[in-house]
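Exercise 7b. Backbone tokens:
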């Protein structure tokens, strides 16, 4: 008897059908699944983790993020988790402090820092209540193709049973290391900017007399630190020192976190009287990017398609916002492949256009450098200019844009004031002005060419014909 005769054949998977299969049940996945299910579409949501569960996240939501929770109908449940309303923002650098209230978004004028186990739990429960079929502990093995069109996924559950789901749309909402992006050949970004910072954070039991209505940030030298009060009487403190080379060894994250806190007097003072809770968590080797995010029968909302350094805390808002808008774009066209693909392309293009400015702004803050002369002058001016302070805060909440801050008149004034106030640093001020012009030109050029990254040919995936369904799947 030949060796082949002794081989056990691969198990034949069961085959299901749905309108949409969503891979990933957290912010982007839930924001996509909820409106689709509420509209009566058959939605299956897969996640490899138990739900709810914690995940690596700095989880601050500016007012624009809170407004997304309101649009999804889950704001009361999120508020009930107990995180305080952060009604003021404070940023300090070079000895100058900028304080301001938040401009309202859909009537919401506060931020909130909600730990992910609670936030994700609210979202998943809302998705189930809307009628979606949510399946935790299910890991996608491959993506099914019909010709060049994405037609579903194949996954295994916690017991090892293999199931194939055929769907009009596959949504990869499975994060930076997206299995779906890799399977369809979209893993390599068409635009990427490495961060100059590493990220370390930990929770502290807040002191009884702490100002729990303020989201605060400090910059000292090349270090950046934050304190965001969150639920259960805790405060999330994050530090982003300059990027270190090499992998983290035992105890390195703890050392780098503690050392950075000690170098930031304002943060050290904020944490006085607080007690550390749990370990230091880290995200290193970070890069901001745009990936190709839509194609025939597939889309990548959330970090799977676009990611920005956590220094500006934009990830959850964008995951919720563009997940919801993806659902709204495709709900009525899922039964027409041509119309569906046109809607996906329009959604992808809109996200790139709308995120380019905050992408540039984030990358500037993520350089891991000491404050430059013009930045120092901005802090000095905004300390006494309430409009300037409001614009600066508004950029983070997406109610204002960097263009509102750096108008030609304001840029000239900042340069002139920097020369007046920093007379012993005139060469550095002039060099910074030249760099600012050069950076602005480079960003403008990048903005003009970004959309060219959307239609390039993807790397050809390896197609494997399924003997059971006649379809093709991609590992």
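Sequence design result:
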């Amino acid at each position: 008897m030949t060796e082949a005769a002794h081989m056990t054949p691969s198990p034949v998977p069961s085959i299901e059908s749905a309108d949409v299969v969503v891979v990933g049940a957290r912010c982007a996945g839930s924001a996509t699944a909820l409106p689709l299910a509420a509209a009566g579409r058959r939605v299956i949501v897969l996640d490899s983790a138990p739900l709810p569960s914690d995940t690596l996240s700095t989880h601050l939501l500016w007012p624009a993020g809170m407004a997304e929770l309101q649009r999804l109908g889950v704001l009361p449940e999120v508020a009930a988790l107990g995180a305080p309303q952060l009604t003021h923002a404070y940023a300090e650098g070079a000895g100058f402090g900028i304080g301001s209230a938040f401009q309202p978004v859909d009537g919401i004028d506060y931020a909130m820092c909600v730990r992910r186990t609670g936030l994700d739990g609210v979202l998943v429960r809302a998705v189930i209540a809307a009628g979606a079929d949510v399946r935790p502990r299910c890991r996608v093995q491959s993506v099914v193709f019909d010709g060049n069109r994405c037609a579903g996924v194949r996954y295994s559950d916690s017991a090892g049973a293999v199931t194939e789901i055929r769907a009009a749309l596959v949504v990869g909402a499975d994060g930076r290391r997206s299995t779906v992006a890799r399977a369809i050949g979209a893993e390599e970004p068409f635009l990427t900017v490495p961060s100059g910072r590493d990220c370390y954070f930990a929770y502290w039991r807040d002191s009884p007399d702490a100002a729990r209505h303020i989201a605060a940030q400090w910059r000292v030298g090349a270090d950046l630190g934050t304190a965001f009060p969150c639920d259960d009487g805790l405060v999330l403190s994050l530090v982003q020192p300059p990027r270190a080379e090499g992998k983290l060894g035992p105890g390195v994250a703890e050392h780098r976190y503690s050392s950075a806190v000690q170098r930031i007097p304002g943060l050290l003072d904020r944490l006085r009287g607080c007690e550390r809770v749990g370990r230091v968590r880290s995200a290193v080797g970070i890069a901001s990017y745009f990936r190709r995010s839509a194609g025939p029968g597939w889309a990548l909302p959330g970090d799977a398609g676009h990611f920005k350094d956590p220094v500006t805390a934009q990830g959850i808002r964008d995951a919720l916002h563009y997940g919801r808008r993806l659902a709204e774009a495709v709900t009525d066209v899922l039964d027409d492949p041509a119309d569906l693909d046109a809607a996906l392309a329009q959604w992808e293009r809109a996200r790139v256009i709308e995120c380019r400015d905050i992408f540039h702004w984030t990358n500037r803050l993520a350089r891991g450098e000491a404050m430059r002369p013009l930045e120092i002058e901005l802090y000095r001016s905004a300390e006494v200019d309430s409009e300037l302070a409001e614009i600066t805060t508004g950029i983070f909440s997406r109610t204002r844009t960097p263009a509102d801050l750096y108008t030609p008149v304001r840029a000239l004034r900042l340069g002139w004031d920097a020369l007046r106030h920093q007379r012993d640093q005139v060469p550095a001020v002039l060099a910074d002005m030249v760099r600012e012009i050069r950076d602005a030109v480079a960003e403008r050029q990048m903005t003009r060419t970004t959309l060219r990254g959307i239609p390039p040919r993807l790397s050809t995936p390896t197609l494997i014909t399924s003997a059971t369904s006649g379809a093709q799947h991609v590992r």
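Instructor comment: The CA atoms of residues 44 and 133 lie 5 Å apart. The radius of gyration is 24 Å.
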